[in-house]
Write a structure and sequence with these properties.
The complex is a heterodimer. Chain A is an all-alpha fold. Chain A has one domain. Helix content of chain A is 74%, strand content 3%. Chain A starts with a helix and ends in an 11-residue tail after the last helix. Chain B has two domains: 188 residues, 3-Layer(aba) Sandwich (Rossmann fold), CATH 3.40.50; 151 residues, Rossmann fold (3-Layer(aba) Sandwich). Chain B has 13 helices and 14 strands. In chain B, 56% of the residues are buried. Classes of the chains: A mainly alpha, B alpha/beta. At the A-B interface, helix 1, helix 4, helix 10 and helix 11 of A face helix 2, strand 8, helix 8, helix 9 and helix 10 of B.
């Protein structure tokens, strides 16, 4: 019984980690290749959720909503890159933080103007409603299983593209030494736009899947963005593999902390003290993990080779 | 000589407007208009606007205007906005205020400026108890009232073995304390979650393994949308009854849909409370704004109308604060909740109802179906600590 609960909590952590990975992947690529701190990345997650929810409601089909969200966030990502971020690559990190934060504020208000201040209705699609029996005595929401499968597929596809294709080779080369890549005659501007668009679509993918679980509202990307920044710091900035490992690590630490701390602390102190202390400590655990990693490996777990 | 003349002139400017009886009454509506809590602010604003429009743009017979301020759900921002309204705009009344922590931050400057606060949402225990003031009124609720009602209902139903949950901040703890004041069954676990937490799957797994007879929660606004949706997705909806306060109402139901079906909520008001004032209010509100009002809209609507009734005592003049306070205390407000009575601490004594979330006949639209009165004429717990000095 206890071990089944542990397995279930581990699955919860893995599922949350996969969502984090989809956001962190784009963030770490953009940071690693273009050296751009993009605080506006959470916005694409939010826009993905909004587009999917509203198209699903209008068409009655979740798959159409999902397709519209993917294409929509890709286009918006490319437009933001062409319109704003292209001018920021040579600027200081402080300028980048200011500009990308401004983009965040703009989009948070923009969705309120377009869709109104109330949260949007987004339900689990009927074909994914219900529970899946994973083990005897362990059932898990079908939709969350689908998120895990879809997220892992996206991670595998990303890995294949980066490891085996010419585009992936350029991306890796760009992360290592972008000046040299440009000197070799590669159209680095186009490469940047493509990477940014793909990162945006990945964040949109996470957002459209999060819609039925979470609240589709203005500013929903901010908390995810902060955790994604933690993930890429732990994983090593610019490394996809690091982002994957770190997001699973963060997801599992978070889920385990939230479920195990309260009973564990209750053994050490009174129940009411444990009730108070557990959520406070659990919410810190992820940051403690980051501090530990920074202490032992300041470059993160899997830093890309740079020179 | 010149200096003295200029001084006299400016003094004259300062004194002159007060001499006119029919000067404009200024009401500052400070609420959360942006960010995740923005939907509650929209309800506040629309409720207040509708009330002033129906009163012909006058309060107590004097021409009136509402100024709007956005507290962004932050106590420090709320305080700045209120300070600006009190000093620059010289407002006599402040209303709105969604969040209790914002209210605690703004009540002092309002009292010091001799202005009057008519709260239309959160009512922290401090404001209703030791820190109560003649200058503070409420047309909404004291935070503990609704969870006290839900605790009483579940006690009467002899429900035991429950799990109770809330976000880990001041109001969350107040709500669970209020629940425990009347509930006497066994509590299997009392779970506090991080205020910014979006995913409750880990806690829901714990709930499922504890297998309680019922779950009681307080998750306002977007938090509630997440929690109730995930509760349904985990397969707990309908199996373990879900009871809540300030969680499943007209601000969240459009986003919740069928995920709320069959759950329970306690509160002082719903659009279906039967009385002529309320029926007219709900119909006019829906016609004007195209959506169903929540208790935030209702309390805000009542707040403006309470100010109107109170100002009748002074004929619309705003100079004599003590007379306005007496006017508000004795106002004959025809409230949307039916009978309206203010306690000694200026918080309402009111009926609390049990609602069941259900689909309106023949449609997919969710609404709060009136089940019964749980606590009639329920006064809040903290009024006894209020000395009104």
């Amino acid at each position: 019984m206890i071990s089944l609960l542990l397995i279930e909590q581990a699955l919860n952590g893995v599922q949350f980690g996969i969502m984090l990975f989809l956001i962190a992947a784009g963030l770490t690529l953009v940071f690693g290749i273009m050296n751009l701190i993009n605080l506006a990345h959470g916005v694409l997650y939010m826009v993905g959720a909004y587009i999917c929810a509203s198209v699903t409601q209008a068409s009655g089909s979740f798959l159409q909503g999902a397709a519209a969200a993917l294409v929509g966030t890709l286009i918006i990502g490319v437009l933001i890159e062409l319109g704003v971020f292209r001018r920021l690559y040579t600027r200081t990190h402080l300028d980048q933080v200011l500009a990308t934060f401004g983009v965040t504020l703009f989009f948070n208000e923009f969705v309120r103007i377009v869709w109104g201040p109330a949260a949007l209705y987004a339900a689990v699609p009927p074909f994914l409603a219900g529970q899946v029996q994973l083990l005897p005595g362990l059932s898990f929401p079908a939709y969350r299983v689908a998120i895990m499968v879809a997220g892992l597929c996206a991670a595998a596809a990303l890995y294949a593209v980066i490891t085996y294709t010419r585009l992936g080779m350029l991306i890796r080369a760009g992360a290592s030494n972008r000046v040299m890549v440009a000197a070799l005659g590669v159209n680095i501007k186009l490469l940047y736009t493509v990477v940014f668009g793909v990162g945006a679509a990945l964040a949109g993918f996470a957002g459209l899947m999060a819609g039925p679980l979470l609240t589709v509202e203005s500013g929903m990307g901010s908390d995810m963005l902060i955790l994604s920044l933690v993930v890429i710091t732990i994983g090593g900035v610019g490394s996809i593999r690091g982002a994957l490992v770190a997001s699973l690590l963060v997801g599992i630490v978070d889920a385990m902390g939230r479920s195990l701390l309260r009973p564990a602390l209750a053994g050490l102190m009174s129940q009411s003290a444990a009730d108070n202390a557990a959520p406070a400590i659990a919410s810190m655990l992820v940051y403690v993990l980051m501090a530990l990693v920074l202490l032992l490996r300041p470059q993160g777990l899997f830093p890309p080779l740079t020179r | 000589m010149k200096v003295v003349g200029a001084l006299a002139l400016s003094l004259g400017y300062l004194i002159a407007p007060a001499a006119h009886a029919a000067e404009t009454v200024k009401v500052g509506l400070v609420t959360t208009l942006s960010g995740p809590g923005g939907v509650m602010g929209r309800h506040h604003k629309d409720g207040a606007d509708l009330a002033l429009e129906e009163l012909g743009g006058k309060l107590g017979g004097a021409p009136a205007e509402i100024l709007y301020g956005d507290d962004q759900q932050k106590p420090d921002v709320g305080r700045q906005v209120v300070d600006g309204m009190l000093k620059r705009d010289k407002v006599k009344f402040i209303t709105g205020i969604v969040f209790s922590n914002v209210l605690l931050a703004v009540q002092k400057p309002i009292i010091n400026a001799g202005a009057i606060l008519v709260a239309a949402s959160g009512g922290p225990s401090e404001t209703a108890g030791e820190q109560c003031s003649p200058n503070i009124f409420s047309t909404s609720w004291q935070n503990d009232q609704a969870p006290e009602a839900m605790g009483a209902y579940m006690r009467d139903q002899k429900i035991s073995d429950v799990v109770i949950m809330a976000p880990n901040y001041a109001a969350g703890k107040d709500m669970l304390a209020g629940f425990k004041r009347n509930f006497d069954g066994k509590i299997l676990a009392e779970i506090y979650t991080n205020f910014t937490q979006a995913d409750y799957q880990s806690e829901l797994s714990q709930i499922r393994s504890l297998n309680p007879k019922a779950v009681f929660v307080f998750y306002p606004g977007g938090l509630g949308i997440q929690f109730v949706k995930q509760y349904a997705q985990t397969g707990l909806q309908g199996k373990i009854p879900l009871f809540s306060v300030y969680t499943q109402n007209e601000t969240t139901l459009p986003a919740l849909g069928a995920a709320a079906d069959g759950n329970f909520e306690a509160g002082f008001w719903s659009p279906d409370v039967k009385n002529p004032v309320n029926e007219a209010f709900v119909a006019a509100f829906q016609k004007k704004y195209g959506y169903v009002p929540s208790e935030y809209a209702a309390a805000s609507y009542d707040a403006i109308r309470l100010i109107d009734s109170g100002l009748k005592a002074t004929g619309g003049a705003t100079t004599d604060t003590a007379a306005i306070i007496r006017g508000l205390e004795t106002a004959e407000l025809k409230s949307v909740r039916g009978a309206f009575k203010l306690n000694t601490n200026h918080f309402p004594v009111q009926d609390f109802y049990l609602f069941k979330l259900a689909k309106r006949d023949g449609t997919d639209t969710m609404y709060r179906k009136m089940e019964r009165v749980i606590l009639p004429a329920h006064a809040d717990f903290y009024a006894k600590n209020c000395s009104m000095k």
